[in-house]
Design goal:
The chain is 31% helix and 31% strand. With 218 residues, the chain is an alpha+beta fold. It folds into 2 domains: 3-122, Tumour Suppressor Smad4 (Sandwich); 127-185, no CATH class.
Length: 218
């Protein structure tokens, strides 16, 4: 089956490099009419049209026939490549008007001044049908990964016994480093040995002083 026959038409209007408008026409429409009028199927301003409305596109057995307005520059891009100018010798006369066939995988660019009208087949419905199952598969994988993350953490999480052993080893290493530091500073031994008599002697607070009850401090 020819996919072009079932595909619609997609048009984009650019002012310089900025997208201004976009239209999509289904395959059930035999013609696409353009005019500088908001009520037109394709409200096209800035282009010199020989008549209003102007038949921009017409369905054929192989897809679409594009009518080229006089005074525009016509270019073609194939499968996303750079645009190349379509020479007048490549145009086909149909009912006294210059036309070009919109082939599959190509984009036509009609330029007049700073305006660019890009025309290509609309294959949005085909793409949705092709990637729908793939999208569901990706969604299922994301859900499985999201739900399995907490379970994996509980299974492969840290062991409490191992954590206690690691903490004990860390404390022992810290004490050993502190002892080495004290030894390097000479703080591991007192300056002089303390006699046993001094150890047993009670601390002396000095002579006892009797303070009058009426003594006050200013």
């Amino acid at each position: 089956m020819n996919r072009q026959v079932n595909a619609g038409l997609f048009c984009e209007l650019y002012w310089g490099t900025s997208l201004a408008e976009a239209w999509s026409f289904g395959p059930e429409q035999p013609r696409v009419l353009a005019a500088p009028d908001e009520k037109a199927p394709l409200p096209l301003y800035g282009f010199t049209l020989p008549e209003e409305p102007f038949v921009l596109a017409e369905r054929t057995e192989r897809g679409y026939r594009i009518f080229v307005p006089p005074g525009v520059k016509l270019e073609r891009s194939t499968k996303g490549d750079a645009f190349h100018e379509v020479l007048p010798s490549q145009l086909v006369q149909h009912e006294g008007r210059a036309t070009v066939e919109l082939q599959e995988g190509t984009t036509l660019r009609l330029t007049e001044g700073q305006l660019h009208l890009l025309v290509q087949h609309s294959v949005a419905k085909d793409r949705v049908g092709q990637f729908r199952l793939k999208d569901f598969a990706w969604l299922g994988m994301v859900i499985i990964l999201f739900l399995s993350a907490p379970v994996g953490f509980l299974i492969a999480g840290p062991d409490p016994t191992r954590m206690a052993e690691n903490n004990a080893r860390a404390l022992a290493a810290a004490k050993e480093k502190d002892l080495e530091r004290r030894k390097a500073l000479g703080l591991d031994t007192p300056l002089r040995p303390i006699p046993e008599a001094e150890k047993k002697q009670k601390p002396d607070g000095g002579p006892q002083v009797t303070v009058p009850a009426s003594l006050s401090v200013h």
